[in-house]
Amino acid sequence: MTNTLSRRNWLRTSALAAGSLVTGLSVLDKPAFGMKPFKGTYGLREDFFPPAVNEIKARLSANENPWGPSKKAVAAIAESAIKGNRYVYNSSREMEELLAKKEGVSPDHILLSAGSTDILEKIAIALCMKGGNVVSADPSYLSLVKTATAIGATWKNIPLTSDYAHDVDAMANAIDGETKIVYVCNPNNPTGTLTPVEKLKSFCKQVSSKVPVFIDEAYLELLDNPESQTTVGLVAEGYDVIVCRTFSKIHGMAGLRVGYMVANPERIKLIKKLVRTEMGLCVTSLQGAMASLGDVEFQKYTRENTKINREFTFKALQKAGVTPIPSFTNFILFPIEMKPKEFVEKMSEKGVSVRGFEIAGKNYGRVSIGTKDEMKLFVSTFNAVS
């Protein structure tokens, strides 16, 4: 009886909880992750990781691709292992040429890295060594922001709009003489939402003459039509826009650590003056990534099955009385009744690894999209603990 009443109460409140992510935003009593915010912390305050447990039946906490790497990538990795005694110079140049052709730029517009997080941190160091501020959405992915604030910058955190898009007008107004970079994660993490590309392009054209705009497109290639939603073309047009991609999502190579940045050569040189980025890469991962680029069928399989399993999970959450946020990614954010730490622990105890967040004073869970069997297990476990 208690559980039934709890569920009914949740049915009445879950829609309000989801809406509170972007409406009724309150200033909390301390900044997220110890950062120095612009006007108090509107959004993401706490991020709860799953605890270590003896047995995980479904790892759905890190937005990984459950089907990767592709067989072609695995074969290329195995074949290239014999080259492990050599540095990556030739492989990195070959990879830069492939990516330059793919993105419609010359190779001097490409910077390789050990995953996209490596780029986020390095661009923050390169631009914020002397302080200043970073403008970004809140909630959003915070690697760049955390690194920037750790070395003395401040954070201008701008709430998302009522439909969970980046508020580009407010972000433009927040830019001042001390702004070093504007960061946009699109699709956004942890919300899974997408800011319309035309609005984003207009914003980039407007503000990139004042400050570089960093577009994190880690999840973009999971869209049905990624080519129509990317901002990478602005780089070729000469705008001071930086676009970041990763092989961790669509290519299923999260543990193999390959990412890249597309930017004006001046931005590439700025980072290369500080660090030798290719030295963080290994020849096996680069060969696997090059093979995966050509495996269009695997990318199609990942895209289609992610969508199928995401829709299954979304409907299952709705059936459970939850109002999840519509997602364009390989994860779903949804309101929960219990504290996120408790939710994550209870799910982990039953072998399902998920994430929990406190956003704008409300509690949320986030589940990554896995195989159909994994998502069925998530649903049954969620219903058992909620």
What does this structure look like?
The structure is a single chain. By secondary structure, this protein is of the alpha/beta class. It folds into 2 domains: 2-66 and 298-385, Aspartate Aminotransferase, domain 1, CATH 3.90.1150; 71-295, Aspartate Aminotransferase, domain 2, CATH 3.40.640.10. 40% of the residues lie in helices and 16% in strands. The chain has a 7-stranded mixed sheet with strand order 3-9-8-7-6-4-5, sandwiched between helices. Strands 1-12-13-10 form a 4-stranded antiparallel sheet. A two-stranded parallel ribbon has the order 2-11. Helix 5 (143-150) links the parallel strand 4 (133-138) and strand 5. Helix 2 runs antiparallel to helix 10 (283-293). The longest helix is centred in the C-terminal third of the chain and has 24 residues, at 296-319. It is globular and about 55 Å long.
